[in-house]
Amino acid sequence: MSAISQKGDGVCLSVRVQPRSSRCGIAGMYGESVRICLKSAPVDDAANQECCTMLAKLLGVPRSSVSVVSGRTSRSKVMKIEEISIAAVRSVLAPYLEVVVPPSP
User: Fold this and answer.
1) Least C-beta-crowded within 10 Å: which of 46, 75, 82, 105?
2) Where are the domains of the chain?
3) 4-95, superfamily in CATH?
4) Could you report the per-residue pLDDT of 16-53, keeping only the tens digit for each?
5) What is the pTM for the complete model shown?
6) Rounded Cα–Cα distance for residues 67 and 79 (Å)
């Protein structure tokens, strides 16, 4: 999972958001980024706020520990999560990002 990296005292997560989705949550990978579906529209920073809140709740960190480092107005973003280790982020996100390979016949 190259979408997750250690940067200084925090963990950076490369994400690709899909605003105005019917549900909110992690929807797998989008290239080298984690794909996140959001119900909010990208108006008045609502989608960024929902993305930060959803990641904080999922990772079990305070909302103030999650921020947008780059891509505030883009679908491709880099999120910084503080107060958590890279191993913890990988273990929480692993079930959402696993690639299911069908068994060989």
Assistant:
1) 105
2) 4-95
3) YggU-like (3.30.1200.10)
4) 999 999 999 999 888 889 999 999 998 999 999 999 99
5) 0.86
6) 6
